[in-house]
Structure prediction request, 120 residues.
Amino acid sequence: IKLRSPREIEEFNDEKYKKEKSSLDGLDPLTVLEYIKSSVEAIMDMKFEEERELASSSTQGLTEYEDMVQKLEAEIRSHIRVEQQMKLMVESAKSKLEEASKELEAEKSRAEALEQVVCV
Prediction:
């Protein structure tokens, strides 16, 4: 069996076809059948190899996709964690602000009471 390159196939013309046919005409029919069988086997092998390569590349693409998804999920969890920490910080700041406001009001009340005592 002779496997031809794409260039050889493109260059295959009527003259080459007739030459090939005449060389096969002189052969025993069983030999021609063996050539056909070998050709079919070679084509099947190429087909199976191509399918294996395709399956391998799609598996690799799937693995890369899964890795990207996992990285994005980790990034999302990190953002959620930061968001929760920021909420806690905001709540803490609000409670400190409320305490400071209460202390300020208490100090204002004391200052007014002292002013009234001083003025009397």
The mean pLDDT is 87.
